[in-house]
Amino acid sequence: MTGKIKVWGRVTSSNVKKVLWVADELKLAIERIDAGGKFGVVDTPAYRALNPNGRVPTVEDGDFLLWESNAVMRYFCEKYNGEALYPADARQRADINRWLDWSLSTLSPVDTRVFLATIRTPEAKQDKAEIARMVEQAGHAYAIMNDRLKDRPFFAGKQFSLADLALSIFFDRWSRNPFLATRPEAPHASAWLARVREREGFRKYVEIPLE
Predict the structure, then answer these.
(1) Which of 87, 117, 166, 183: CA 20 to 30 A from 173?
(2) DSSP string, 17-38
(3) Are 196 and 187 in contact (CB under 8 A)?
(4) What are phi and psi of 123, to 5 degrees?
């Protein structure tokens, strides 16, 4: 690898956190450029030429351009010796991919609604009844996670993988959300998160203020 990999995106974005954390695990040299949220940038013609979706993260690895955080994580592991996080074995990889896809198709839609209605909404304007309904919906998804972890330390078995990395970012912000008076118990998922919290990348990129 020559030169630094450019990562466009603000550090508070859950999807940018994934990419930065994987890069940290693989000891990659990264140049991060603020974009999205209060930084703007994503609606400029120059940025849209990089990523027509106008979202973060966007990654430039030399002359290779890539967006979609899960695709970036896989790419980093496949190119930069990340088999410990993303094993080459077809079944192990499929298991990890299943949870990465599930995080986008099932978990993120319900979790993000809770996040936007609480962390991103002034408390005086929060609809408590609607939030309670959202929490119930998200709780069903987190119950699936909790059940998966009842008899294993990590999502794909005994070893930490990309599945744990991606899902822990969601479960952490769900667990730390100060506006949720109650949330369904998830003891197995909570024990799993405690294990994930021991990783340096989690402490560096995930344990930051929610905003």
Answers:
(1) 87
(2) HHHHHHHHHTT--EEEE--SGG
(3) no
(4) -55, -35
